[in-house]
Design brief:
heterodimer; A: about 525 residues; mainly alpha; 2 domains; 20 helices; globular; B: about 240 residues; alpha/beta; about 25% strand
Chain lengths: ~525, ~240
């Protein structure tokens, strides 16, 4: 087996933690129940994806534009691919823990880079298989297709991720050259990536306009991704020349950037690894701070020193603000189209509250705050600090990053919407209470499902069971709040009661989670072993 | 076997981590590289094994430049860092197979050496377990087995005795001697000066990136102990 295949094989086994599927008592054999569970989970995820995309296809078909689903599938896949690869590429290519190991082996730099990029491609193929494959199948349900369609569709599946990966890899490389020159490296990385994420999120949100005018939506997206999306779309529909453009525009940058990175991989990594040491500290009188203050300071440093942690957890609060702004811009015309007067629409405040709560339910810094300690967890565990104090430090971080967004959301709402005082109060207090709930919930779940052996922060934040469970519970709770509020409004016609009902419900579940954290959570913490 | 000529390494905006360093190790020699924390030991080691780019000077392994022919050089080196970052989600045996595949170690040698050293270091029974479940010492032992199984001409070790139990430390020293008798060279950094004194043919003391003493063990320490010499030079 070539070095490329050998390295890729072990990299996949390691990164996807395939050995976790083995039996606990006999690690030489795979566990059938674990594999079955994985298959069931995969079927569920794929079925949900198909159902969701079918709904889009159905909507487009009703509007006599079923072909839009294909374009949407291509562009959504490329966007998702770009979003996920950009946030991963820097950490994966230039700050990876296996750099020393791989570089000390007699493997060409090009081969190492190719292995890493192939791994990124595999991740992208999973994304494409979740969005693009259902789209081409659902397209074929609504529109008659021929063999050429399937050949080009499948070719697009394999070529589609090339450009997003190439762009992400190039950006990661540029960052690796620029960032070490700055004093505030992490801040630059965070701001740059936040800009990209906001840009991608705003574009994605235009999908809310799909039902109004699918054509303008696709046009606006295609104007941004014209080079790939539209060419691939027209190519699959039979325009060979445009398909050739798509192939060239995807393959050439991919090959070019992979070669460039392969050539300068060691240099770029050396720059990244080069710590500037000033060695000019002079001993000064040191101040004494309280345990609580010190813990919060430590948590803040840990959080902001990890761009991946920040980027992946700030998405929810950031999304809430984007949603409030977009609601302010788009809701008026939507309601006007439906014959509803925007200024006299009584449930406007409730919609804003719902959008914010929904966004905040996506993330919580606390859901990975224990796992992310990794091998340094012994420092906390061996320190003479009560578990409660440690919990408070971690919860504080989630509030520090979320509460400013809640305040900003309230201020934006005051300027954009003409609401009652109670609406403004609820736009502030319901999300605030919900954030407190999510903070305690995330921590409790992480204490239940801790893992200290993640290779990097990205995996702890993105791929941990604890984060998935927290998101799942958050999603269920948000749904219950919505249903509860709708039922109250339907039965009483009083929005105030719906607000109160939602507030009380969150208050009750928050009290339960707080109690659980202080009783069960403390016990779980004491049992934790690295 | 190893020739370093005027090696200098400057980190961005920082001082020189390694300053005009030159030294030579012949086949069959055990070489100790000592110095206080931050003196430049790890920077030198990482440059030797080709995982750190350097601006000035050159490093030759078996008369081949690590800059010009990195693949050849790496194919005859085995490097173990002070805190080996192994693939934690692989089992021990998977990791050993991975390294042996990369170094194209044949089946007989692979089975014989992995069997021999895993029994010697008493981790044979743990080879099917995930590396993430290993202690620091076990990871160190696994990294050592992976290095020994490839029968390198130059073994580069950064603090090899940290985390090893006394029995394993003794065995490592015996293996090092055995390797040198077969013509391999060993370059290792250590803070355990007694071990360096007893084990090594040559020694270098590095301070602020510069070599301040280099030669055979007898030449460097004279009538004194290595510890005395080190403390004297460190305090100068």
């Amino acid at each position: 087996m070539s070095n490329f295949l050998t390295t890729l094989k072990y990299s996949i086994i390691n990164s996807f933690a395939i050995n976790k599927l083995r039996k606990k008592d006999d690690t030489t054999k795979f566990s059938f129940p674990k594999i079955l569970l994985l298959i069931v989970l995969a079927i569920f995820v794929y079925a949900s994806s198909y159902a969701y995309i079918y709904l889009f296809g159905f909507t487009f078909n009703e509007a006599n534009q079923p072909e839009v689903i294909l374009s949407l599938g291509i562009i959504a896949s490329i966007f998702m691919s770009l979003l996920i690869t950009i946030t991963n590429a820097t950490g994966f290519l230039f700050k990876s823990k296996d750099f020393d190991l791989l570089m000390s082996l007699p493997i060409k730099q090009n081969t190492i880079v190719l292995t890493k990029i192939t791994y990124l491609l595999i991740i992208n193929y999973i994304i494409f298989s979740l969005i693009y494959i259902p789209a081409i199948i659902i397209y074929a349900i609504f529109i008659p297709t021929n063999a050429i369609y399937w050949v080009f569709s499948i070719l697009t599946f394999f070529i589609g991720p090339f450009l997003p990966v190439a762009v992400s890899v190039l950006l990661a490389y540029i960052l690796s050259i620029i960032i070490p020159k700055f004093k505030y490296k992490n801040l630059i990385t965070i701001l740059f990536s936040l800009f990209l994420i906001t840009f991608i999120m705003v574009i994605s949100f235009m999908s809310s306009m799909v039902e109004e005018d699918p054509t303008s939506f696709i046009k606006s997206l295609n104007s941004i991704l014209r080079f790939t999306g539209e060419w691939a779309y027209n190519g699959i529909r039979g325009d060979y020349l445009e398909f050739l453009y798509f192939v060239l525009v995807s393959v050439i940058p991919f090959v070019l950037f992979t070669r460039i990175i392969g050539k300068f991989y060691l240099k770029a990594n050396t720059k990244f690894a080069s710590a500037t040491s000033k060695s000019n500290y002079k001993m000064e009188e040191l101040e004494v701070k309280s345990q609580g203050f010190t813990l919060i300071k430590k948590e803040l440093r840990r959080y902001f020193n990890s761009p991946m942690y920040v980027l992946n957890t700030i998405v929810g609060p950031l999304l809430s603000t984007i949603m409030v702004v977009l609601l302010g811009i788009a809701l008026e015309s939507t309601l006007a189209d439906a014959g509803i007067d925007f200024s006299s629409f009584p449930y406007l405040g409730a919609i804003v509250v719902s959008a914010i709560v929904f966004s905040l339910g996506i993330t919580s810094t606390t859901a990975s705050s224990i796992s992310i300690e990794g091998k340094q967890f012994w420092i906390l565990k061996s320190a003479p600090i009560s578990p409660k104090k440690i919990f408070h430090g971690k919860i504080f971080i989630n509030l520090v990053i979320t509460v400013p967004f809640i305040i900003i959301n309230t201020v934006i709402a005051i300027f954009l919407f003409d609401l009652l005082i109670i609406d403004y109060l609820m736009i502030f207090f319901i999300p605030l209470l919900f954030t407190i709930f999510m903070s305690y919930l995330g921590l409790l779940v992480n204490l239940k499902f801790p893992r200290f052996d993640y290779e990097n922060d990205v995996k702890a934040v993105k791929q941990s069971l604890s984060v998935l469970v927290t998101m799942g519970i958050g999603f269920v709770i948000v749904t219950v709040i919505f249903v509860l509020a709708i039922l109250i409004v339907q039965n009483t016609k009083k929005l105030l009661l719906a607000y109160l009902g939602a507030f009380l419900f969150i208050l009750i579940i928050t009290s339960i989670v707080v109690t659980l954290l202080y009783k069960v959570g403390v016990k779980l913490y004491k049992k934790l072993v690295i | 076997m190893l020739r370093i000529i005027n090696l200098s390494k400057t980190y961005t905006k920082g001082k020189k981590a390694v300053d005009n360093l030159s030294l030579e190790i012949k086949p069959g020699e055990i070489f100790a590289f000592i110095g206080h924390n931050g003196a430049g030991k790890t920077t030198t080691i990482k440059s030797i094994v080709g995982i750190l780019d350097f601006e000035e000077g050159d490093i030759f392994i078996d008369n081949h430049s690590i800059k010009e022919e990195p693949i050849y050089c790496k194919s005859i080196i085995a490097y173990i860092p002070d805190n080996p970052d192994l693939y934690e989600q692989l089992t021990g045996i998977q990791y050993l197979n991975f390294i042996c595949d990369i170094y194209k170690v044949n089946k007989d040698q692979r089975n014989a050496d992995i069997g021999k050293y895993s029994r010697m270091f008493e981790i044979e029974k743990n080879l099917a377990d995930l590396i993430s479940s290993y202690s620091h010492g076990m990871k160190q032992k696994l990294a050592l087995i992976s290095a020994l199984a490839r029968r390198p001409k130059l073994l580069v070790l950064d603090e090899p005795f940290v985390g090893l139990d006394p029995k394993a430390s003794f065995q490592v020293k015996e293996v090092m001697k055995e390797m040198c008798n077969q013509g391999s060279s060993i370059f290792f950094s250590t803070h355990v000066l007694e071990v360096a004194e007893k084990l090594c043919d040559k020694v270098a003391i590095i301070k602020n990136g510069k070599i301040i003493a280099f030669g055979t063990m007898e030449d460097v320490k004279g009538d004194k102990s290595l510890e005395d010499v080190f403390l004297e030079t460190a305090n100068e």
